[in-house]
DNA sequence: CTGAAAGCGCTTACAG
DNA sequence: CTGAAAGCGCTTACAG
């Protein structure tokens, strides 16, 4: 009898003992699935890391943001009594049952008109985004990233450090981070009557984009050459730094380089590279907190504010 | 009728269409839990990263091994049509149903007499270890790590590079990696009539152990001072390198330093540090393959051989 | 205090 | 071709 095992009803100790013994003997183990069936909850959260789609490898070298997110989220989930599942796209045909069985979803960096958000919202599955769907701002519960403010912060720093002409290198994924950063530099440039210098290169290309970026910005009119390049990803920044050095430019004297999201790589390279610390652990913990509330049927209202990114000043921008 | 929706039986197209329409209208979504109940399978794998227990933070700086493992495992699982759950200890009281609902488990670096393995095997839940339970070798299905061979490979390299007296710094977790490495250096030292120089310091201390390690090995009889220190973790190696430098030792001339598991940190530090590449991605993929077989009821027999670790030679051991 | 029954939301034989 | 029934393995009221 289940009362004995789960200690719910009032059962004689003797009976409990006897039943527990037998249970142990036959190696009885209650099916977590059958249990979950009652309240249709498994105690499962899912982290959908959308940009996995665009990364050719999971190698975290220079892209530790997502792995730090995943790790912190898993740990935070456990602390709330949930498990965390890592998936990339639950809308793909042939996904396992489990990919749809989470009590709530966290979607990091959704794409423009992301089908994952569409599916989740159509099926009334609770979810929270980290970064908005750029095409549907305000439509879904989201933790705001403030990519615009972050960009402004970095531009202000570079400007203070003596840069006059700042170029931006973003990734090609159409997510909030890439798009809002672009908007921010365009606005910033135009307010100074400058033609915005922007280039988008695939995230997955990593360090390999260095020469292409240098070619793009340093081939035309010398008056238009940047004296600072802000790359959103640490790997792009590393590639640009290396390419600039190869071309005989001194960093930071001739060219400053900074990254919007760094890894240890940027802290130990020569020169070390200025980065933003996006606080992925804090964001992940916050997202888990919200997902747990959603999973438990609570209403959560925005705006959801995260800890601000901070600037890690390093040699590459220290003139 | 379910036949219409899942396309199993023979149903008129017309009926299918009608039912699908209604389903869409009412926002019907089949419960993955109820579905899973039939064959008591959810398409869920679990990765139990035991050393999480000992790490004070999930920050991957210098410990990217586990995160790389987690990432690669998640991706590999998806490719096999499974989801991957990240948990640290399913034996803890109060774990969610889901933590026990996986079809198969991968346990990385189990401890000595690890209760997780005990539970899993008692409950007849299929699992595969990465690294053996040091107290129960051969008892459970395990992917062998060859920590002993790895240690020998590193010792041979250091020896070739000119080291005469090599010290080993391990973590304090009682897992295969730490223990087998210790055994290997003891054997190696004794065969040369040398007193083994071994020290164990907590994994979680990371770079902070530098001075303690230097004190330990450089305080006594100068004849016993090592001219090479092999740290199993990259963070320990980084700490030792820094401490040695601070004391005026030149690396590698006066002291060589190497790590058994490195991260990007060791590739970009000054000097760069020689490490083993343990191939976590390959191991994770292999583990997932096995877990999938187990989940599907196939028998898997050992010995399970992994790709060999390779040596990344860097400045810290280049005399 | 304890057993038998109903129900969680599906799927899969089994009648009509 | 389609509907009604049984069953997956539990939990939770509900009788005895």
From TrEMBL, chains A, B:
<feature type="domain" description="HTH lacI-type">
    <location>
        <begin position="1"/>
        <end position="39"/>
    </location>
</feature>
<keyword id="KW-0238">DNA-binding</keyword>
<dbReference type="Pfam" id="PF13377">
    <property type="entry name" value="Peripla_BP_3"/>
</dbReference>
<dbReference type="InterPro" id="IPR046335">
    <property type="entry name" value="LacI/GalR-like_sensor"/>
</dbReference>
<keyword id="KW-0805">Transcription regulation</keyword>
<protein>
    <submittedName>
        <fullName>LacI family transcriptional regulator</fullName>
    </submittedName>
</protein>
<keyword id="KW-0804">Transcription</keyword>
<dbReference type="InterPro" id="IPR010982">
    <property type="entry name" value="Lambda_DNA-bd_dom_sf"/>
</dbReference>
<dbReference type="InterPro" id="IPR028082">
    <property type="entry name" value="Peripla_BP_I"/>
</dbReference>
<dbReference type="InterPro" id="IPR000843">
    <property type="entry name" value="HTH_LacI"/>
</dbReference>
